[in-house]
Amino acid sequence: MNNADKCLAIMEQTAQKMSIKGVAVVAFVQGDSALTWVSKMKIVGTLSNGNDNRLAIAYSKAAEMATTYQNSGSGI
Question: Cα–Cα distance between 14 and 52 in angstroms, integer?
Fold first, then answer.
């Protein structure tokens, strides 16, 4: 997690260039199994749009990736 802040800053800059608001999350899983992880998040613009909790969505995607070992949006 030494590079977490740097990664989150890059994600924030990219989102801002694309006019995207939400939550950026990075997580570190040590080893071959996602039995534990350490994560860090950064709000990029807004935590909620009134209807959606963007932090919950971001961590839901992270949980999906921890289960499937595939990138978010892979279609699995």
Answer: 21
